[in-house]
Design brief:
By secondary structure, this protein is an alpha+beta fold. It contains 4 helices and 13 strands.
């Protein structure tokens, strides 16, 4: 579904400088595993977007894949840049994932299957540690974010039809509200507030590169922040 606006050109209404970042100790693999084993009482901040389509809602899952940057090192989040010709969310940054199939045993099975199909991540290297509350997109998908630790030795092979690029962003960057920017836009007479988390880096050719993380992906990351800070 093509957007009627460019989210990167909308003004920034606010940045959450007042909220604390999640500490490095709380972002370790062992701490995350413990948090999902004994979760706190908490409420997700963002659960749904205004609907943009009349089609029937469908269940889906995404894989929030956490990758050690080095042996025992800080974790990164595996993300994809979707190709521009896709019907839903073309060209956007997203987690690997997609629509549930009748043969999927549960939300985790959907996330693992879709990640394998989209980016070639073999399920044998994925250790699911928990799931977040569902998030309903404006395009009608009821999405379960499945959180997992990726074990060393994995290889990736992106499906060129769906995925233009696979990249990683430090989890610590995404779990720091100083990088959470608020925007608003009117769509079909309904105001939509949303977050962006632009990540600036240097690409393999040595050129500056910005990955514009926003919308549903940013909202699910924000809920992960709220879960870890509760």
């Amino acid at each position: 579904m093509a957007l009627s606006f460019d989210p990167q050109k909308l003004p920034v209404l606010g940045v959450d400088h007042h909220l604390p970042a999640i500490t490095p100790d709380d972002l370790s693999a062992s701490a995350l595993r413990q948090r999902f084993t004994a979760p706190p009482l908490w409420v997700p901040e963002i659960t749904a977007e205004p609907r943009f389509t009349e089609r029937a809602a469908a269940h889906a899952s995404v894989l929030v894949a956490l990758v050690p940057a080095a042996a025992g090192g800080a974790l990164t989040v595996l993300l994809t840049q979707r190709t521009d010709h896709l019907t839903d969310h073309p060209g956007q940054v997203s987690f690997p994932g997609g629509r549930s199939e009748p043969t999927d045993a549960d939300a985790a099975a959907t996330a693992l299957r879709e990640a394998h199909e989209e980016i070639g991540l073999a399920p044998a290297f994925v250790d699911v540690i928990g799931a977040m509350p569902t998030y309903t997109t404006g395009t009608g998908f009821i999405v379960t974010p499945v959180v997992a630790l990726v074990q060393p030795g994995f290889a990736l092979k992106a499906d060129p039809f769906e995925v233009a690029e696979v990249f990683e962003v430090p989890l610590a960057f995404l779990m720091n509200p100083r990088h959470h920017r608020w925007h608003a836009v009117d769509v079909a007479g309904v105001q939509r507030r949303f977050l962006s988390m632009p990540f600036d880096c240097i690409d393999e050719a040595g050129a500056p590169r910005r990955y514009f993380i926003w919308g549903a992906t940013a909202a699910m990351l924000r809920n992960l922040y709220r879960f870890l800070s509760a």
